[in-house]
# Entry
Amino acid sequence: MNNPVIIVGAGLSGLRAASLLTKQGIECRVLEARDRIGGRILSTSVPNRPDLGKFDLGPTWFWPQSESHIVNLVKELNLETFVQYNEGDILLERFQIKPPERCVLQESSDEKWLRLTGGVQSLIDALAETIPSEIVELETRVKKIQLNEAGDITVEADLADGKRKKILADAVILALPPRLVANHIEFSPFLPPNLITDIGKKPTWMAEQAKVVAVYDRPFWRELGLSGYALSAVGPLQEIYDASPNKGSGALFGFFGLPADTRKKMGQDKILKLVVDQLVKLFGSEAENVQDIFYKDWSRDAETAVEEDFSPLKNYQSYGQPPVEGVWKKKIIFAGTETNSQYSGHLEGALQSAEQAVFEIINLNNKPL
# Structure
């Protein structure tokens, strides 16, 4: 190859692709619109209290019994994991005016939900260490990808200072949600209509969701014989889980039942008050003593969601590899969890799609595995 492979997006797929290409000796550059790496992986800590641990505002779990790629990568990077806490009863909240019902959790003995010590961000940070830091360019927003008659690719990107840069590439891996590609990147010549239709129909995973994490000095609900798992028909949180680190502090996180437009109208302050009120109703007065509370509405994140993502996710059948044909075939390759049909929405899907993209690049380069 005469020019580098350009990877658009520094999430899990993009960084994994960069790591694998680097290992194969293939030059690459990663262009990321955000001012951080990780994409939809986002782990945070309480300001001035790092001892309380890291808390995931994006993906949280993986399932080792069926997801071999992430299992192997976690081992390769020597990362520490622990099993999601699920000992104790669950709570069911069916009515606004009645107390929650307490039920015995029916365990599946062969199914484990694993979490990463230090949050999923630890996976991102470890992957970043496997590639030269200078190949990742933050606050670099790809706006146009052009292919000339000779088959040369030019990628144009806007920088934080308002300038635009042009980069020659032999191939481009689009490691970001397909709808962002359809809405925000111009192609010359135009992408085929069937490809535009396909990527426009792929809902962005998590894009209509918001997540909240309430942090406590300890997981007090365990002392009450509760697992921290709760289901609610009245909300605002629809599902609640124990998000405590493997030692030390306690945390509960929840997914909202409120649609994106409702959350926007209510505003963050009102939403968080309703969240704490619900946690008090479910887990008792001690739930009021939050050390901190984190809120991430992915529908308001312009680097994740487009307007079509604001409605609840329904079209699961649309996930899988987009049909790239014509002049763009072997020039652009899609990666990301939405492009993996079997594990879409999972970290596993993001990794498998990256590995498939790199496999295609290696074939283009005639470089043996």
Summary: Residues 347-364 form the longest helix (18 residues).
